[in-house]
Design brief:
The structure is a homodimer of 580-residue chains. Chain A is an alpha+beta fold and 580 residues long. Chain A has three domains: 11-237 and 414-465, BirA Bifunctional Protein, domain 2 (2-Layer Sandwich); 253-394, Alpha-Beta Complex (YbaK protein); 483-579, 3-Layer(aba) Sandwich (Rossmann fold), CATH 3.40.50.800. In chain A, helix 1 packs across helix 11, helix 2 (44-63) runs antiparallel to helix 6 and helix 2 packs across helix 11 (457-467).
Chain lengths: 580, 580
């Protein structure tokens, strides 16, 4: 294709509201154009990438035996009322009334419509398993859309839904999709990791996130470099870092720690390692009556080693906190601890609280903790002697790099990632809510076991750029680059030779099926090169009069530090090899 | 592909709400599935057709130099307020508020967003002409959605927008799109006609509709079989059917016509040809003050030959009726004519009215018309002698088959058509409303001249079926069939030979790039054949044990009355030829 027949529109500066690099670069490269908060036009350059991403997804979904269909963007509310999500989902769900005042929603996902199709179409065990997918426009009215198309409101998603007769076959369907996702993200040419994920509110059986590795990712992902272990930090199991509790060697001592309210400050003041300190966090859980009024509040003291952080997802799995919790108020803390925050601890409480110790804390001895007295901490605290054993010992912390891997095969490392895919064994939640049954061999109705599998099509673009860019611009992986090769003639208007050679190389590459662009815009070399480095085309060939006189052109890969001179025939061979 | 890996779901009976054949057959063939009024799931079989339609459109749009992008489904109201369409469009425009209470619309089309992109991106005459298109989900909240996806609420449309520096180049862009549409509809394999269309409220320069010919079409299209003339009946010019006015030969006579209030009845009673009668239609136009109160009403008498019908679009172009008109009330008629409808005429009026005679009526002599007296008509009426010449002579009728063609090259014929495409030279309406300008050679801002070009992607399916079906089902044109060939093995489970031959033929065809389906569902032959005739696959090969023993298989084209026996190698050659 010639640039003059396409649409190239680059910007020197990114708009002020672009915070992250992918957003900045996509705006500057003319890939997207803002229409409203979290709503973007996909410009020709960006749409080419989307189409390549979609094509790879489609190929691999089809290869995996999934069948494509297309569900509407505007969906009747009735189905969403059947599952209760019409009311339960917050303002993220865009609701709309038609001319007759009937309720509709703009789809954020399609479990309801898909389950409705399945309950009508899949009537016998003979029709199972079945996996349907679509690639469609979605809308989620994010409270604070940001990061360009990484957290936009309108976006394109591939969502697939599998239907099985039982959990055993559903697990096979899940594994099939997991394998397809491995192929898909592999083909994109992105560094990614499939990590075990929390199954959250739906409480399904199995869940993995596909995370594109990027320093700027919102998610922390935990993995073991010497084994297969990988999980979202929300889920990654924290083992006790001590083999057994040591014997008490110190007396419990009240130490003044004026103004030192953090473990770090206390450890520094006392000249002790941070790992000797214990952090106290106070939560509250409320029991409600049927009108939503609080009938009873329980106060919880969660104890973590000073260098560890609370994992709220894990805390939320504790019996008594499952239905929700909050941080305790200053008044509740004063009432139970007789102290202000910063000096709290498990010893000498005014009123009983539920004490939950992290696995490591439960094995600590001679530890430091708040004394429930302003500007004071205890040192030499020991379980059993100075305070009763905790009510509960649980894994309530985020793992940290260097922790032992839960599979016993090494130590954990942590990376940042951007979630671009999610596979989820849903079980029977939706099929029960919507009574989606099939008849088994005995003619008895059974609820279908479902899985759902999403890929954020447009988000992939952002994630790919967060992972692959430099100070000059985007560096697209080969498979999803808007163009594979750009041919840049210098002085095409002055030299027939340059024009002919550029056109010939373009035609030869196109004949080979290569996605090649001939930049015939007549830009100066500097501006032309800057454009294509910004856009991130993987391969560039520069053809100049001077070069041609020596029988040479210049080739430069997007990651190469400098150009290589070689003959026209050679550059074709080189590109054939590189693009093979 | 194997049927077992796909999803085939046919119905014996169409649902009761399916009125037209395409709706019935699409439902029965499992192409679409109703989700709500005018909202459909595109099932796997239907989606395959949609994808083929889209691919052809995309290829030809690209070939024509248009550049694809993608605009959002949910669009901010601000742009629609700039053009006034946010308020002016009725409830067809689906309006929605986001979580912050801001107004958005679900796009029915994208002139506003496109013009907004153009005014930001196209700044210089050097960037023009430019043509952008997208293929995207649209929504129009039709008052009465019907005919399946022919008049649904959510649908897929390709809409393109061209931007030019002046009307001359815009006309070239228009012609370029017109030619692309000719190629597109030609490639679909549909019988179609491009017809000149009324430019309506926008009042643009040029407009053509692309109509798929079908007896069930909603539109009447007029064409001349011996010339290029073709127009929508709304626009087709009706010439005077008399060369000149004949001399009066009869006296004006009041004839009793008791109970005969139609021209047909009066002509029959009097033993005169219908073409000797004149029909009177009474319209009213109201002048409003700025508060919308009526300040003056004009009564109009429109005269048509008895066998002709009023063309309201043409009437709406008459000076004085341009701003709208209505049929007169009974009271208004009584006041001006002193008679009830059915016996009205242009002679002996109580109060003055504006008399508009159709071109033919103005040349009639000795005609029959109502006498403004119940149960009476005049015969022998003559212009000038019995009544004054009309205030206006105009083309206000629908043409009828057999009329002379306006280009003088033959007589007109009329077909029914389904509008599936529309090209429109918009002029500067949107660019002026939204101040979309470019700088010309002199650095002066000029409004861009726009064209817009739509194709109803999903509607094509309905139109194709209305045109191509029989009592057994759909007959897809080759280019957009969900599958080109279906291989039907009989007794595949009993015979290894049948299984192997079917698989081999499938693999051979697939290797040739043919879209082939192997029906491995194990259905009985009758049910299997009925399914594929219903679905409308163009080519079927039946492989049976008995046939193979004779070295033969059976080939049948979807339009063939019966099957042909031939060898396996021969059938491959035959299909190669047919699919070439």
């Amino acid at each position: 294709m010639k640039a003059s027949q396409f649409f190239v529109s680059t910007l020197k500066e990114a708009p002020a509201d672009a915070e992250v690099v992918s957003h900045k670069l996509m705006m500057r490269a003319g890939m997207i154009k803002r229409l409203g908060a979290g709503i973007y036009n996909y410009m020709p350059m960006g749409l080419r990438v989307i189409r390549k991403v979609e094509a790879i997804i489609r190929e691999e979904m089809n290869r995996a035996g999934a069948v494509e269909l297309l569900m509407p963007v505007v969906q009747p509310a009735e189905l969403w009322q059947e599952t209760g999500r019409f009311d339960k989902m917050g303002p993220e769900l865009l609701r709309v009334k038609d001319r007759h005042g009937r309720d509709f929603i703009i789809q954020p996902t399609s479990e309801e419509v898909m389950t409705d199709i399945a309950r009508q179409e899949l009537r016998s065990y003979k029709q199972l398993p079945k996996n349907f997918y679509h690639i469609q426009t979605k809308f989620r009215d994010e409270r604070r859309p940001r990061f360009g198309i990484m957290r936009g409101r309108e976006f394109t998603m591939k969502d697939a839904y599998s239907f099985d007769r039982d959990v055993a076959t559903a697990t096979l369907s899940y594994q099939n999709m997991y394998a397809a996702y491995q192929r898909i993200f592999g083909r994109f040419g992105l560094e990614f990791r499939a990590v075990a994920a929390d199954t959250g509110a739906i409480g399904g059986e199995l869940s993995h996130e596909f995370q594109v590795i990027a320093d700027t990712g919102e998610d922390a992902i935990v993995y073991c470099p010497t084994s297969d272990y990988a999980a979202n930090i929300e889920l990654a199991e924290g083992l006790a870092l001590l083999a057994a509790r040591g014997a008490a060697t110190q007396d419990l001592t009240l130490s003044p720690t004026p103004g030192k309210s953090t473990c770090e400050d206390v450890a520094a003041l006392l000249g002790l390692p941070l790992t000797q300190t214990v952090k106290s966090l106070v939560l509250a859980s409320d029991e409600l009556d049927q009108d939503g009024a609080i009938v009873k509040t329980t106060i919880w003291l969660l104890l973590l080693r000073g260098d560890h952080d609370l994992n709220e997802v894990k805390a939320g799995k504790i019996e008594g906190l499952k239905n929700g919790f909050r941080f305790a108020t200053a008044a509740e803390i004063e009432e139970h601890f007789g102290s202000k925050p910063g000096y709290l601890g498990p010893i000498k409480l005014l009123k009983p609280v539920k004490v939950v110790a992290d696995r490591t804390v439960a094995l600590m001895s001679d530890f430091v903790c708040g004394a429930n007295q302003a500007d004071h901490h205890f040192t030499g605290a020991n379980w059993g002697r100075d305070l009763p054993e905790p009510d509960l010992v649980a894994d309530i912390r985020n793992v940290v790099a260097g922790d032992p891997s839960p599979d016993g095969k090494g130590v954990l490392a942590i990376q940042r990632g951007i979630e671009v895919g999610h596979v989820f064994l849903l079980g029977t939640k939706y099929s029960k809510d919507m009574n989606a049954t099939f008849l088994d061999e005995n003619g008895k109705p059974q609820h279908m076991v479902m899985g759902c599998y999403g890929i954020g099509v447009t988000r992939i673009l952002g994630a790919a750029i967060e992972q692959n860019h430099d100070e000059r611009g985007i560096i697209w992986p080969e498979a999803i680059a808007p163009f594979s090769v750009v041919v840049c003639p210098i002085g095409m208007d002055r030299s027939e030779e340059v024009k002919a050679a550029a056109q010939q190389l373009h035609d030869d590459l196109q004949a080979l099926g290569v996605d090649v662009l001939l930049d015939d815009r007549g830009e100066r070399p500097g501006a032309m090169f800057a454009d294509w480095e910004l856009v991130g085309v993987p391969h560039r060939v520069v053809i100049s009069d001077r070069g041609l006189k020596e029988g040479q052109v210049e080739y430069q890969g997007r990651r190469d530090a400098q150009a290589t001179k070689l003959g026209l025939a050679e550059v074709l061979d080189l590109l054939k090899t590189k693009l093979a």
